[in-house]
Write a structure and sequence with these properties.
5-stranded antiparallel beta sheet, 11% strand, 401 residues, 11 strands, 4-stranded antiparallel beta sheet
């Protein structure tokens, strides 16, 4: 939230900050930093009453720095600069953090050394009349014991304290705090990142979905890449994960053992995974396996002249050979009804994987030869094919008038 002059005012005489949120009929008053606890009051009728909840309004915000004359900046100018610098990385519970820092010297020491522990602590101790006395009492413990106290987990080790020091937040949002809480209790996560010097929060978010990848050499290499946000990480990791799954599937078809250690863990870049994948595709397409011709389960959507279901393992292997990709390795998945494969012949020659049935059908993959990406016209055509089928399903399921 950007706090400009339209919603804030500052009293030079008292050092108080006023925030007026007319659209939700809320008016708040912040006592000065150097007062007793940076207390907050809410206007109720004609008087100010104590407001003990965290308002969720970050008064320290890097976006405010562009205008030093903002009332919120005049208020924040009385807060020590090192605290302002660190607190600006926290959006969720920032006010609770600042309130702790304004009256508790132990909180300052902890925030200087390991700020995420203080963040976890103010989240764990919910607002009540003696909240900060409780926080101060817990802060007398060693850092690892603070973590054990607030997580109710006696298995928390000193490595968790080091782990938290490495984490680099994005916005300090609630979702980031939840990621940290989950990873803190995951011994594998702590172990996988023990050699990382800095750990961006979006790397942790990606690790939760694809932990195996970060245990490989690729996981070490990705630590050297400067990502801007989670989307960039997720895009790269999802590509690698697609190769990872395909390699496991192909190796299983080819009866290659120990592929995780002998191939996957050694890959350092996306191109390494791509090369291993393509080598296995060529082996599979030369192998001649899965040519029994036994029929697959019925596809969820009937084909037409341009989109044709592949009905047996022989057809799947031939599709893989013709298109130069790994679809021949999907035999087991198709036999189990987990995937259905179609050859697309217009507007472009593609191979398509769909999952689900009825109204839950979705397109999982659509690839040109050699895993190329199809154009917009092809995507539009196959989506219309699915949409038309689902529309007919809805009409068939509709009750008679």
């Amino acid at each position: 939230m950007y706090l400009d002059q339209n919603v804030t005012s500052y009293s030079e005489a008292t050092g108080e900050l006023f925030i007026n949120l007319m659209h939700i009929n809320v008016r708040l008053k912040y006592e000065p930093w150097n007062s007793c606890g940076m207390k907050i009051y809410r206007r109720s009728s004609s008087k100010w009453v104590p407001f003990n909840e965290d308002p969720g309004i970050p008064v320290v915000n890097i976006h405010h720095e562009e205008n030093s004359e903002l009332p919120v900046n005049r208020y924040a100018s009385h807060i020590p600069k090192w605290i302002v610098s660190k607190a600006s990385h926290f959006y969720y519970l920032q006010t609770s953090i600042l309130q702790s820092l304004s009256i508790l010297y132990r909180a300052k020491d902890l925030f200087d050394s390991n700020p995420l522990i203080l963040w976890l602590l103010v989240d764990a101790i919910k607002p009540h009349r003696s909240r900060f006395l409780t926080i101060d009492r817990i802060l007398k413990l060693k850092m690892v014991d603070v973590l054990r106290h607030i997580t109710f987990d006696l298995n928390i080790q000193k490595s968790c304290v080091k782990f938290l020091r490495k984490i680099q937040l994005s916005r300090g949002a609630f979702s980031e705090l939840q990621i940290i809480k989950r990873c803190l209790k995951n011994e594998r996560c702590i172990r996988d990142f023990r050699h990382w010097a800095v750990l961006p929060i979006h790397i942790l978010a990606a690790w939760e979905t694809f932990p195996d990848i970060f245990a490989s050499n690729f996981g070490q290499e990705i630590s050297l890449i400067d990502f801007n946000d989670y989307t960039e990480v997720a895009t790269l990791v999802e590509k690698v994960h697609g190769h990872w799954d395909d390699i496991l599937r192909l190796a299983d078809c080819l009866k290659i053992g120990n592929v995780r250690e002998s191939m996957l863990m050694k890959c350092k870049t996306e191109m390494d995974f791509h090369k291993v994948h393509d080598d296995l595709v060529q082996k599979l397409n030369r192998s001649g396996i899965f040519v029994d011709g036994h029929p697959f389960p019925n596809p969820p959507i009937p084909g037409n002249e341009n989109i044709r279901p592949i009905l047996n393992s022989r057809g799947l292997l031939e599709e893989g050979k013709f298109m130069g990709h790994c679809v021949g390795g999907y035999t087991d998945s198709v036999r189990k009804g987990q995937s259905f494969i179609y050859s697309v012949h217009y507007p472009e020659r593609c191979t398509m994987e769909i999952t689900g049935s009825g109204l839950s059908v979705r397109i999982r993959q659509l690839k040109l030869a050699n895993n190329g990406e199809p154009g917009d016209a092809t995507w539009k055509a196959v989506r219309k094919w699915v949409d038309d089928f689902q529309q007919n399903q809805r009409l068939d399921c509709a009750p008679p008038h």
